[in-house]
Write a structure and sequence with these properties.
This protein is mainly α. It has one domain. The protein is built from 10 helices and no strands. It has helices at about 20-30, 35-55, 55-80, 85-105, 110-135, 140-150, 160-195, 200-210, 215-230, 240-244. Helix 1 crosses helix 6, helix 2 runs antiparallel to helix 8 (about 200-210) and helix 4 (about 85-105) packs across helix 5 (about 110-135). The longest helix is centred in the C-terminal third of the chain and has 34 residues, at about 160-195. The radius of gyration is 20 Å and the shape is globular. The two termini are about 30 Å apart.
Length: about 240
């Protein structure tokens, strides 16, 4: 079965008769296609390289904010979804709040920049723990993607084949988050404790965040696509009268 796509790389609505097709479509919507990925990544890239170059936190925040606002403006002009631009703005705002808190505590520009990266570490840690727990209790998060389409959020658990598939896909979401935490946390801790030059720690955090952002996510998604291509698990749609 072939699918046409929107300008964002998202599939047009189509009949989805297998679990694999449902998951592919839902993942594409969640990520926003190539454009959504860029809108989420560019502000971080702009912040990182501008801070490394100028060592000016306010300037770096302004540049990343301008990039996100520009993307938002283009979306509004085109009357398309602003979800991923808003997500980027929220991320910048949270990071700025942490940086402001560090500034009020007397931290210098490097301390503030380290604080800016802390929410990302906390987010990835919480996401990895939450997804892992969902698998351990046999309620993999990816299963709810299937349930949202079939009309029953929990019916999928009655099919062991679907549970196994969704568990494997959920582990593929855990791995990038876990890798980021394992690699980036030492930079943050060493920068804060003085075990590493704070400026070097900020640079390492920024570069590793970029390198382990969408590239790592796309690698994980490539494995997920491979898993989805191996099987064709029929979707059991809930009858309309039952959903009433």
């Amino acid at each position: 079965m072939t699918e046409s796509t929107t300008e964002d790389g998202q599939p047009q609505p189509a009949d989805e008769h297998t679990v694999e097709a449902v998951v592919r479509a839902q993942l594409s919507k969640a990520l926003g296609g190539r454009r959504g990925m860029l809108e989420a990544a560019v502000p971080t890239i702009m912040f990182t390289f501008s801070f490394i170059a100028f060592k000016d936190l306010k300037l770096s925040l302004s540049i990343s904010l301008a990039a996100a606002l520009l993307a938002l403006f283009v979306r509004l002009v085109q009357r398309s979804s602003v979800q991923f631009c808003v997500n980027a703005l929220i991320g910048i705002a949270i990071g700025a709040a942490f940086a402001l808190r560090a500034a009020k505590a007397g931290g210098d520009a490097n301390d503030q920049a380290l604080a800016y990266f802390l929410p990302g570490l906390l987010y990835n840690s919480a996401y990895a723990v939450g997804l892992t727990l969902s698998n351990l209790v046999r309620w993999p998060l990816m299963g709810f993607m299937v349930g949202s389409v079939t009309g029953d959020l929990t019916e999928w658990r009655k099919d062991p084949q679907i549970v196994r598939l969704c568990s494997r896909l959920t582990w593929m979401l855990v791995l990038p988050c876990l890798a980021r935490v394992l690699v980036q946390t030492p930079f943050y801790v060493l920068g804060k404790s003085g075990g590493m030059d704070p400026g070097a720690a900020v640079a390492a955090l920024g570069i590793s965040k970029i390198a382990m952002g969408w590239p790592l996510q796309l690698a994980s998604l490539a494995v997920m696509v491979w898993l989805l291509a191996r099987n064709a698990t029929p979707v059991r749609l809930k009858p309309a009268d039952e959903g009433a």
